[in-house]
């Protein structure tokens, strides 16, 4: 009987712990949306709304006239303008292990970027790319546009 109870307890812990681990794997949250904003994950597309979690490799696409504000786990803020298409390429925020990375690719549109802890602690770890240029972050705030 005690073996069955131990097995049930182990299964219950595994089932209950898994969703919590899944929610902690996000790299950022959509804080606000105006207009139509979509998140493309692999082959699935969903509508973004406040509270939508972002993962590495997600694309954020805003319709003409739409905006989206995003906050990453380290406090980095990204505000996208209309007709933007941005992909989160890499994100690592592990202060205890001294591991940091932030990389995004902006195919088109405009955005305001404001550094969080990664940009302050390891500015060389931040990279923002467009079809025409790569921006290395050395400041705390800038506007970027890609056609």
UniProtKB/TrEMBL annotation:
Keywords: Signal. InterPro entries: FecR. Residues 58-145 form the FecR protein domain. Residues 1-22 form the signal peptide. It comes from the Bacteria. This is FecR protein domain-containing protein.
């Amino acid at each position: 009987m005690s073996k069955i109870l131990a097995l049930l307890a182990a299964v219950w812990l595994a089932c209950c712990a898994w969703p919590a681990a899944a929610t902690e794997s996000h790299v950022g949250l959509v804080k606000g949306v105006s207009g139509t904003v979509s998140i493309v994950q692999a082959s699935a597309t969903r509508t973004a709304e406040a509270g939508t979690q972002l993962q590495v490799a997600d694309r954020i696409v805003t319709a003409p006239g739409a905006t989206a504000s995003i906050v990453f786990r380290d406090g980095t803020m990204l505000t996208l303008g209309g007709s933007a298409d941005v992909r989160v390429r890499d994100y690592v925020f592990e202060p205890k292990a001294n591991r940091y990375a932030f990389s995004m690719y902006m195919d088109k549109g405009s955005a305001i970027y404001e550094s969080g802890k990664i940009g302050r602690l390891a500015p060389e770890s931040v990279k923002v790319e467009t079809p025409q240029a790569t921006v290395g972050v050395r400041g705390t705030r800038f506007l970027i546009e890609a056609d």
